[in-house]
Amino acid sequence: MPSAADSFTSSLLDRDAQPKCSRMGLAVFACLQNAIIGGIVFGWASIDRTMLAAAPEDGGANLTAIQTTRLFTFASSTAMLASLCLGPILDAYGPRACLVVAHVLVVLGCACFALSTEMWQFSLSVICIAFGGPGVGLSIIHNANLFPKNQFLAVSVLAGSITLSFSVLAMLNSIWELWHVGFRSLFGGYSLVAAVMLLGTVLISPDAPYEKEEAGDDDNSIFSFDSPNQDDFYHPSAEEDYVDAALYTYAHHHEHPFLMTDQSLRSTLRRDGLDDDDDDEEDCNEQSALHKNKSPLRKHQSFLLSKKAVQSHNEKALQAMSLKDQPFLVQLRSSTFARGVLIFMVTSFLANFTIASLNTELEDLAQFPVGVQHDLSQQFTWLLSLGMPYSVLVGWLMDKAGLEICTLLTLILGQVSTFLIMVPSFVPFGARAVMIFGFALYSLFRQFLYPVFLAIVSARLGFKYFGILTGVGFALSGVAQCFMAYMVGFVHSATSKGWICFNIFQIVLMGCLMAVPLADFRDMKLREEKMNRALRSGSRKSLRSSSRLASSSTPLVEKKTAEESDSNLSDADYGSTDKGKVGLDVW
């Protein structure tokens, strides 16, 4: 029996409003979830030396600078490690379950932080808040499937909405300064805000990811193969039905199990376009023969090549299949995933290091008076939290320029922002303006980090194991960030030139990483070429074998062979068996 939440969600999708309105409403609510819960702890710089350092009689927590730095280190590491646990929950139980867990953790964390008096209590509370946040960011990405024409843009906006939550602590600190409300009341009140969002999550969030898109902005009907704009949409069940029939045909004709039967060739985000070559033309004709209307799979080159590999029973072609269609261990061990994680680990560590060390760096370098240092830390947090508009630019660039270009741009932005933050040490004239401009570019740099990594996983590896793969990537980044407090202490203990040397090291390191997206692009092209070579080689061998058989056969045998060949060709293409027909009748 459907629950009240299921009925409420269905009513949102079935109401008379235009489909675009309902999709936008669901996306806006997802962004609101991320803005309220997703990344509260990353606004840490705004309360690091103010609310947390103030005496209890002034409504503060009376923590030292070393303690607050350690708290943020715990929080940033936990936020990364959390995805390894919450990702499987998302994959196994769906987005609503993962969102509920995330919201409950944040509610408990904020309430406990308001009651904390000892360092270990503050630590557990911050860890609880940081553990819940990433679950929201992971669970809302599936909403990008509601916008098939601009999926990367939707991914970027959904992921970028987390920056709005960076302003939460800045707003709490402003209330603390203006109206002298204690930190206990502020965090206790925010736990109630998170509880209200939890109620909305239970009512609105779906149990399963959105996979079936609307037929068009001006069409109220759900996608069907008869809709006029179906070329622009992807229906995963159609691919699943075709693959089931193709695998059955292969096993039936070759009398042994398919080499990769542990996973089927399905994925919910395929953005590969077709090239105008003969092979793709043949695929389009095959799809047209299957159904009078053009198939939505027509544009998905990775699926078409994987389908060819299945039908060719060529082991080399199977090994070169798209990573989206490979088993989990193959995806996990792939160089594409390793390179994506490497860039994300380094850039996220450096980005969070800036948040953890900004106040310490300003104090050590003494570029500005103490009052100006406080103002700069506040402006840094506000600029960081206003990065949401950047997400539109990031998504547009990923759709138009590609992931490789955006990865390179991410590294360049990281280098330039680090250089500008370092410039006031050498050029005192206009130092504050240069520093603020560096903060703005840092905000843009950070806005690229998460959408680019999530897009690499979804576009290169698909959504089959999206939760666990992103969890592994975030967890590895979290392990690296466990050493952040020690790194801050090490640089702080060095001479004043220690910060300058470390900033130069960051710039050089990100420059070296520019070779990574180029290697990824090269490997992707090599895999496609290997697949095509294996398929062409297999086709030539098959033709030569058929030719030799025909030349040595009697007329009677020739006739029988030709009939069997026609039958096999028909079955191999779209299945003459009953199961093959049943699997494809939906087309």
Automatic annotation (TrEMBL):
Keyword presence, Transmembrane helix: yes
Top-rank lineage group of the source organism: Eukaryota
Membrane-spanning residues: 25-47, 71-90, 97-116, 122-141, 153-176, 182-204, 341-360, 380-398, 405-427, 433-453, 465-488, 500-521
InterPro entries the UniProt entry points to: MFS, MFS_trans_sf, SLC43A_AATransporter
Biological process per Gene Ontology, one example term: amino acid transport
Chief location category: membrane
Gene3D superfamilies for this protein: MFS general substrate transporter like domains
Membrane topology: Multi-pass membrane protein
Classification via Pfam families: MFS_1
Keywords assigned by UniProt, alphabetized: Amino-acid transport, Membrane, Transmembrane, Transmembrane helix, Transport
Subcellular location(s) of the protein: Membrane
Biased amino acid composition, Basic and acidic residues: 576-587
Gene Ontology terms for molecular function: transmembrane transporter activity
Region Disordered: start-end pairs: 270-294, 533-587
Biased composition range(s): Acidic residues: 274-285
Low complexity composition bias: residue spans: 544-553
Family per similarity comment: Belongs to the SLC43A transporter (TC 2.A.1.44) family.
The protein's name: Major Facilitator Superfamily
Provenance organism: Seminavis robusta
